[in-house]
Design brief:
CATH class of the largest domain: Alpha Beta
CATH architecture of the largest domain: 3-Layer(aba) Sandwich
CATH superfamily of the largest domain: P-loop containing nucleotide triphosphate hydrolases
Structural class: alpha/beta
Oligomer: single chain
Strand content: 5-15%
Number of strands: 14
Radius of gyration: 23 Å
Number of helices: 16
Number of domains: 2
Largest sheet: 8 strands, parallel
CATH topology of the largest domain: Rossmann fold
Helix content: 25-40%
Length: 472
Amino acid sequence: MTMSPESIPASSFPELGLSDSLLRALSEEGYATPTPIQAKAIPHVLAGRDLFGCAQTGTGKTAAFALPLIDRLRETPRKAAPRRCRVLVLAPTRELAAQIHESFLAYGRHAGIRSAVIYGGVGQQPQARAMQHGVDVLVATPGRLLDLVSQRLVDIRDVEFLVLDEADRMLDMGFIHDVRKIVGQLPRDRQTLFFSATLPAEVRDLADSMLRDPLEVRTAPRSTPAETVSQSVVFVAKREKKALLVKLLREEATGRVIVFARTKHGADKLHRDLEKAGIDAAAIHGNKSQAQREKALAAFKSPRPPVLVATDIAARGIDVDHVAHVVNYELPHEPETYVHRIGRTGRAGQTGAAVSFCDAEERPRLVAIERLLKRPIPARNEPPAGHADDVEAAPPRERSEGPRRNAAERTRGRGRPGRGGRQGSRHSQGSHETQGASRREAREERPASGSAAVATPPRPAKPGRRKHRRAL
């Protein structure tokens, strides 16, 4: 894999060699300066090279591949055959697929680009009709794409350009076999663009099997949050979290706010609690129907957005401008997920704030996150006595003098170490449970053909054992 040569990044889109129709669309969208990943990737994509791109969420990866591919299509105009496409973009979630589709429509509005999107959770007939006469660009989630291919409603044998977006998330959700099956049906003579926010060994192996002499471009160290995001942590007893969140939302958080919960059940309960407290809120997670998810996102994008309570399905599936605050109501088991969560704010050079609540049981997760970041997250208060028992020491902690300090200090001494509850010691295993949760979520994104997504009911608890709370 060839590293991209270092050069002075382009300071404007015209310098990247994009066509006038694209420059006109970008001007109408209000974009004047390319982000680092766009400045590095676009010239190589225009030159026809395979590309391995690594950049954090919120850095403009979609435009980094959409803009040059639209120009490549214009250079060699060709009408797609019925049920076929020239560009295939694979995305892990419905929300991300829909947003990529919207980007192609916006950027290609003056280029005559035809685009379609297909994903599970909704009826397949409108999607099949959209493919009847062929399209230039097809954006799809792997499960529904394979359903339609198996029914001969979509044909991918003419694909000239393949994009795999959020590849690491694709693997986390258990889509690797679907992706390999799809790639096996594509022409060998194609240009492939591979994007990922992190670089685990499995992602490297998948990229090596798909790419031909690719250039590698990176814009940030592995798992590095944007420098424009102000991070802080509040040590708080579990029973105090709801009251602290309500106070934070009323006194500090303004604009668009995303609150991350660990489980679907927890997100729904928190949504109800906020509504009871008089705070307008909406919830989004894998058990919601596609119509409910779209309604929640539409409200979140409105001029008077509700607080959006979400599980990690939204950690990389939401691209909404001007998210002012991200609140980690519960810390994630996987440290990398923390980076993706807070990446919902501070996007494209904007500033944002990320506040994390940490109870006694979550201290090991906080230590793991700080180890990944290689620095401590500034704390707004001191941990209560006994809060850090049996936890390996974290790096020396900084103090944050934010406006929430006084309220947070009232939680001092109220933690209850040793009380496991439903999130007891078995959750310390972390990675195995998270992998299982991702696979369950992937099944929800991959319903049977023509049917709506139906949540898999939880298995009955065995006698004498406490029932597991379903993740995500």
